[in-house]
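Feature request disguised as a bug report, sorry. It would help if multi-protein outputs had a clear separator. Right now it looks like this:
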Amino acid sequence: MSDAVLVVTSNRKATHEYHIDDRVEAGLVLQGTEVKSVRAGKVNLQEAYCAVDKGEVWLLQCHIAPYSHGNRANHDPVRPRKLLLHRREIARLEKSAAQKGYTLVPLKMYFKRGRAKVEIGLGKGKKLYDKRADIAEKDMKRKLSRSDVQRLRED
């Protein structure tokens, strides 16, 4: 079997809103029609977050659209979904997330060896000036790359 990773969706907003300190891969418990919707890419992680409750980690507010060919047994689009992690990882994440300003943010959802996975990041919220600095840095890199391309074209 290949270890190919098929990325379904990524939460680009998360890296803009949070400083990501730590990343963890977690399995995802899905119902039948949810798997088909995820494979079709009908997932939205924009408003999603993770929470630890009674020793279990849950993915909350993640919207997986109902399967188009599903019947009355179709799933609820924003139901809480359980994440599969080792007990030590859960304890470490719970301890880290309890610190002021930290939260568990889903970064991307993908399939690895046919299994649905979610990458969770331990993030601390950015201030407005941090966001502005990141935008300025991206603009500077873009300008430099454009000038490099122009210089190569002239040669």
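(second protein starts here, but nothing in the output says so)
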Amino acid sequence: MCDDYAGYKASFTQGVTEIGCAAHARRKFFELQASTKSAVAKQAMKFFGELYEIEREVHGLTMQQRLAIRQHKARPVADALHAWMVAHRLRATDGTALARALDYSLKRWTALTRYIDDGQLPIDNNWVENQIRPIALGRSNWLFAGSLRAGQRAAAVMSLIQSAKLNGLDPYAYLKDVLQRLPTHKARLVGELLPHRWTPG
């Protein structure tokens, strides 16, 4: 699941399936509405709002239940949104903010609606983006880590901390235990200390 970053494109020709992020598509219309008070953008926001309301309804359900409800409720809304976008794109002038917002969704429509046909997929990438937000916000503070090697070490430590959190561990307790065990731990068994394999010593 990704935005329109060009770096991902090559992987889609090598067997990787693209999943579109509805939050990125919605944001184009949100920004348009905020800057121009566009009635068209406002209507797009209502469509996206309906899709997100369905996602609130299916939150916590099983994969099969999510799939059934999405097929029954989200598919008609998505189809209506697509038809609405196509109609407005025919009237929008190329190069305008509205045309760009419509094109963003229309060009990746299949990817944006894949979640409807798969109960295990989310509608957007917000959860992952929220996990990496502290790192993204801190980037300017870390421009001067001292050296390339120091930056690489900082990245490794931050990866370990986030991995520990994802595995339900207390990062402080995890790192404290690992650092105490490392001097006597066999190098060939260091994989045992990774967050997803670690057990308290």
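Even a blank line would do. Unrelated, but nice: The chain is about 60% helix and 0% strand.
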